[in-house]
Automatic annotation (TrEMBL):
Keywords: Ribonucleoprotein, Ribosomal protein, RNA-binding, rRNA-binding. Residues 7-94 form the Large ribosomal subunit protein bL25 L25 domain. Residues 103-187 form the Large ribosomal subunit protein bL25 beta domain. The gene is rplY. PANTHER family: RIBOSOMAL PROTEIN L25/GLN-TRNA SYNTHETASE, ANTI-CODON-BINDING DOMAIN-CONTAINING PROTEIN, RIBOSOMAL PROTEIN L25_GLN-TRNA SYNTHETASE, ANTI-CODON-BINDING DOMAIN-CONTAINING PROTEIN. The keyword Ribosomal protein applies. One of its GO terms (biological process) is translation. This is one of the proteins that binds to the 5S RNA in the ribosome where it forms part of the central protuberance. Part of the 50S ribosomal subunit; part of the 5S rRNA/L5/L18/L25 subcomplex. Contacts the 5S rRNA. Binds to the 5S rRNA independently of L5 and L18. InterPro entries: Rbsml_bL25/Gln-tRNA_synth_N, Ribosomal_bL25/Gln-tRNA_synth, Ribosomal_bL25_b-dom, Ribosomal_bL25_C, Ribosomal_bL25_long, Ribosomal_L25_dom, Ribosomal_uL5_bac-type. This is Large ribosomal subunit protein bL25. GO terms for molecular function: 5S rRNA binding; structural constituent of ribosome. GO terms for cellular component: cytosolic large ribosomal subunit.
């Protein structure tokens, strides 16, 4: 399950662009927590909290416990708006996680065993098709990441969704059945040419 990160936020009294600008002038990032068949909660966050979260891998599937206005809400980051020049966060949307509800979430793929892969030892190149996978999953059991073991892959081998570890309860949002996650491509020039050159 995804790690839960606790953060504190302030309640914002007013909505609208003017109120959001006032929040930013006060040195905070305006945001909203919505969904779960409840009224949206307007919040303001320390920008350092937002930046730190975005710089950590897997932030799209991380569950946040947001302490605001005397209560705690669990939520996922759904959207982050960045300043067009400074690239700093100017607004953040959180999707409230309702008990028992399923959500669509983007989960990162972690690759292990690369140093043991016969194909990579022979000069093959790891070709990653999907760094993340969009899945439908129970909001209370969101994976922190999926794991792909490369240790047995040779050149021209690939790993598909059915080979991925940690996918229990997660349904991929894809029209392609058992899609490719990654493969080991032959090195430039090909293995056959290298073998012939070594024999000559």
């Amino acid at each position: 399950m995804s790690k839960i990160t606790s953060i504190e936020a302030e309640v914002r009294a007013k909505a609208g662009k003017g109120a959001a600008r006032a929040t930013r002038r006060a040195g905070l990032v305006p945001g909203v927590v919505y969904g779960g068949k409840q009224e949206p909660t307007l919040i303001a966050l320390d920008p350092r909290i937002v930046v730190k979260g975005l710089q950590t891998s897997g932030w799209r599937s991380r569950v946040y416990e947001i302490k605001v206005g005397g209560k705690t809400e669990r939520a996922l980051v759904r959207d982050v708006q960045l300043h067009p020049v400074k690239d700093s966060p100017v607004h953040i949307d959180f999707l409230r996680l309702a008990a028992g509800a399923r959500v669509h979430v983007e989960v990162a793929v972690h690759f292990v065993g690369e140093e043991k892969s016969p194909g990579i030892k022979r000069g093959g190149v790891l070709n990653v098709v999907r760094h993340t996978v969009d899945v439908d999953v129970d909001g209370e059991h969101i994976p922190e990441y999926f794991t792909v073991d490369l240790s047995t892959l040779d050149i021209n081998d690939n790993v598909r969704w059915d080979d991925v570890q940690g996918t229990a309860g997660a349904t991929p949002i894809s029209h392609e059945p058992n899609f490719v996650i990654a493969s080991i491509a032959a090195p430039s020039g090909g293995v056959a040419e290298e073998t012939e050159a070594a024999a000559s």
